[in-house]
Amino acid sequence: MLATKWADQLCSQAKSNGLDCVVVNRVNGWPETVTIDGWQCFTKSVSYNAQRGLYFQGIDPKKLEEKGDFVLVCGVAIGKLRDIFVIPWADFFGTLERAKPVNTYRPPKEYWQYKLYLKDNGSSWVMSVQGDDQPGLNVTRWRYDVDQAISRLKRSA
């Protein structure tokens, strides 16, 4: 069974709502960079861990060298695209750069990543990163359902 690429689903829905949406870069088949209605966006497709109340993802440290407008975290729960976080680029990567990268492969191989958590605290969503002892970034105001996210990404909105 092929894994669903939730960022592709978001792009399809954006196109069906009249927005120009182009996948600029794919990594191992997954959309990583997209342009939606002129916005340069880094995308991640993530699954919700109901037991822990969070989304979890690894990010390549090389992403800190890039520039863009938004980071789109496309979250899925129970097989359905549920939460879209439309986080301003500077806020997302400003928080991420406080992390300590970890090797996610077994030695002697190396693949370094920053570990990112989007946690539901009941009344708010907080982005935190592994190895950072500062309070996380409150991302509640940037959490949308799919239709709201598409509306947010419309330049005319």
H/E series: HEEEEEEHEEEEEH
Classification by helices and strands: alpha+beta
Count of distinct strands: 11
Could you tell me the radius of gyration in angstroms? 15 Å
Number of helices: 3
Helix-residue proportion: 10-25%
* Strand-residue proportion: 35-45%
Shape: globular
Could you give a short account of the major beta sheet? 11 strands, mixed
- First CA to last CA: what distance? 38 Å
Low-confidence segments, given as residue ranges, are none
Kindly provide the name of the CATH class. Answer: Alpha Beta
In the CATH scheme, what's the topology name? Answer: Trna Endonuclease, Chain: A, domain 1
What is the correct CATH architecture?
Answer: 3-Layer(aba) Sandwich
State the domain count: 1
Average the pLDDT over all residues and give the rounded result.
90
Compact summary:
The chain has 157 residues and is α+β, with helices and mostly antiparallel strands. Helix content is 17%, strand content 43%.
Task: Please provide a written account of the structure.
This protein is α+β, with helices and mostly antiparallel strands and 157 residues long. It has a single domain, classed as Trna Endonuclease, Chain: A, domain 1 (3-Layer(aba) Sandwich), CATH 3.40.1350. 17% of the residues lie in helices and 43% in strands. It has helices spanning 6-16, 89-96, 146-153, and strands at residues 21-27, 30-36, 39-49, 54-59, 70-77, 80-88, 102-103, 112-120, 125-129, 137-138, 143-144. Strands 1, 2, 3, 4, 5, 6, 7, 8, 9, 10 and 11 form an 11-stranded mixed β-sheet that branches. The termini are far apart. The mean pLDDT is 90.
